[in-house]
Structures are given as structure tokens and as C-alpha cells.
């Protein structure tokens, strides 16, 4: 000490001292007792760097273990300075203060740069002790979450608009804190609690507003990546996002522009997000239509992206289109009027990248169900699909087999072409010889669909399909090693066999 007396303090005592320095006013008396006393503002409120050093000394020792008490005190102090709800509510963790109108932060107590410094400190602590910090992200009304919500709010960011570099820095660091659970090996229950807390804090809606109004385009990758993680984790996040977009043309304009961006990460994340919406929430197809329906040919996002130079974007666009075409009404019908869309999709069947061919074959198979797609254009897919039955990727071969079966829906226009292209021949060969069970099953499903037409039945009988299928079925009936269940292809094989036998001996 300053009087030369050695003091030995334990960790809890140091914690109390630092907490007191940060938060408690002190009464100071002059040497002359008759002069009275006056109160000195605590170090925190005076904005002294010593307060940060004191906090860092306890929060960040050589073997970091952030003290929950001091950690909470620091976050509460930040919440008060940033005017998170009412000061009393923020200090007491009262969620009722969260919805109250908030004033501009008191920059006399903590500058905007100081806010950024605090976020850097928080990121350091989270990086060193991620699993110990995670529980604070599971509480939607906890001080950490409501403070992050405040930092990402349009009202707070508007206070920083005078500094073009400060807004992106604050947003990125706040998003990095929220991204920690998705970057760690976290159990599903904890991840669900974090997602629920973020959702209940309305942060997904705020992320859309931040990206569309406050961030330069080049800084939107991380917020959109975070939003994508949230969307695929929780259907209610989708609902919240769609509601926000419904009342904001800025959001729709941003999302559409992002599809034309030069950022591979931004575009692929957005395509993944839109694909999940198409797959999981058909009631939100109008939302997708607003984004994906360009005003003229040059502004058609899907056609543009199918020809993108980056294979991941072409693949994800095919996957999005395939999921859109799973639905029979609404926007999928509008897709059929987009010039060049189907032709661009068929071109992806011959793409040099395996992932693109796989997704394109899935999309073409679903397009076959839509009668307003021109049969002549779909017919041009037949020779390409038959060649792809030899593709190296099993998933692609399975998609192709199912797509050829779906084309039987257009039998009146395409039946002769399917027979001339030897589709029954190659599907039977795949059903009997492909090394992958899923591919054999896909071929059998396709043959069953096509065999509803007498022309296909005659071709299969001429190929001695009943004998080949009987051999295949007998092999599937043998007990599997280790007592494994009977393959699902066996059921399709038996039903196809009965159908063909019935065509020879009706009744």
C-alpha cells in the first residue's frame, strides 16, 4: 500500500474492491473536518481508463476465468450508459424496462469509441471462455442480450451515423458475440435456448433493418450469415423476418440486390436462407416472389444466378428452384413465365461441377410436374438425363431416375420420346445393377410410374423385365447381414413385378 504495509487480498476481496471502484460514489473530506465533505463520481462514470484496467485485471488473468459478478456489473454499467430501457430496469435486470422509449446514450460517460473498446473486451472474454459465457446468451431479458439488442437497434446506430467506420465496427462485433454458439460444439438444447432468446429479442428483424439501412454492402456478410443460421434453426424466426420485410421496401430491395452482389458468401448464404423458406414454409411464397420476380428480363435473379461463374451459386440456385417447384400454386406458376429460366436450368444438367448437376436434376424432376412448362423444352432434357444415369455421384443418379419417372406425367407429349431414348432400358439396367441401394430404389420408383402406360409395359416385357426383377426380388428377400431391415427397394420391386405380370395375365 502507499503507507508501506503489505496487504494480501483473496480473489473475492479483489472482486469487491474493483466492483466498488467501478460503481460506488465516494465521500471525501478535506483535511479540515469543519470544511465538510463532497461526493466524488465513481471511476466508471468519470470514464477513466483505470476502471477498464481494473476490470481487465480481474476479467482477464493469465488463466482467464471471467468472474460472473464483475462481468455482470460491467454489462449493467454499459446498459445504463447506453440507456437500455430505464436505468433502474437495466440495473435490476427488469425486462419491463426493455420496451420503454430510450434516449440517446450519455456520451459524457462513455464515448462511442469506448463502446467499441468494451465490445472488443467482451469478444476477448468470449473467445477465451466461450462455454462459460454462453449461458448469458440464453436469457432474452438478461442484461447481455438486451444490451446487444440496443447496440443493433436503428435508434442507437443513428446516433453513430456521423462516423462511417464506427457503425460497421459496432455491428460486426455485436454479431460476432451472437455467432459464438454457432461456431462451437454446443449441445442442441443450449443452441435452441440461444436461438429462442435472440428471436424473442427481435434481433433477426433488427439485422434486416441494419443491413438495409445502416451498413455499406460490403459489411453485410456476417449479419446475413447470422440470420441464415437463425432461420434454419427456428421457423418462428422465418415468420419474424417475413413480417419485417412485409412493411419495409428497403428490406426487399436489399435482399434482391444481395442476389446480384459480388460477394460469394453473401449470395450463397441468402440462397440458403431462401431455399429453407421455400422448403419449410410454403405460406411465405409471396415473400419469395417479391424478391425473385424481377421487373424485366435483365433483372430476373434466378436466370442470372443459373449462369453465375461460381459453381456454389449455380448449385444453390438450382436447389432453390427445385424447392420452389415442389409447390403447385402461386409463385411457381409465375416462374414459368420468366424467359429463359427453364433453358438455363437444363443447361445446368451438363455443368462441369457435380454439385450443380445434382441440384439441377432435382429441379428438372420437379419442373416436370408443372403442366405449363413447355413439353418441347422439357423433352430436350431427356437425352441429358439418360446420360447422367452414369454420373459418379449416387445422389445425382437417384435424382435423374426420379426425374425421368416424373416426365411420364407428360406422357401425351413425351411418351414416344421416352421410348425412343431407351429410357425403360437404362432404368431397368440401373435398377438391377447400380451399386447403391438408393439409386436402385429411385430407378424402380421411376419404372413403376412409367409402367402405368401400356407402351412402357410392352417395352419392359420385351426386355424380360419380369425375370430380371424376380431375380432382384429374390436377392432382396434374403436375410441381411447382422439382421438389418429389408431394403425399401424390395417393396417397389415386388409391386412393379405384380404390375407387369398383371399386364400379361389380367385378372
UniProtKB/TrEMBL annotation:
One Pfam family from the record: HEAT_2
The family database entries (Gene3D superfamilies) matched by this protein are listed as: Leucine-rich Repeat Variant (1.25.10.10)
Please indicate which superkingdom the organism of origin belongs to: Eukaryota
**Gene Ontology CC: one annotated term:** cytoplasm
Class of enzymatic activity (EC top level) = transferase
Q: Is Cell membrane included in the keywords of this UniProt record?
A: no
Q: What is its EC number?
A: 2.7.11.1
* Keywords assigned: ATP-binding, Kinase, Nucleotide-binding, Serine/threonine-protein kinase, Transferase
> What catalytic activity does the UniProt entry give for this protein?
L-threonyl-[protein] + ATP = O-phospho-L-threonyl-[protein] + ADP + H(+); L-seryl-[protein] + ATP = O-phospho-L-seryl-[protein] + ADP + H(+)
For the keyword NADP, the answer is no
Q: What is this protein called?
A: non-specific serine/threonine protein kinase
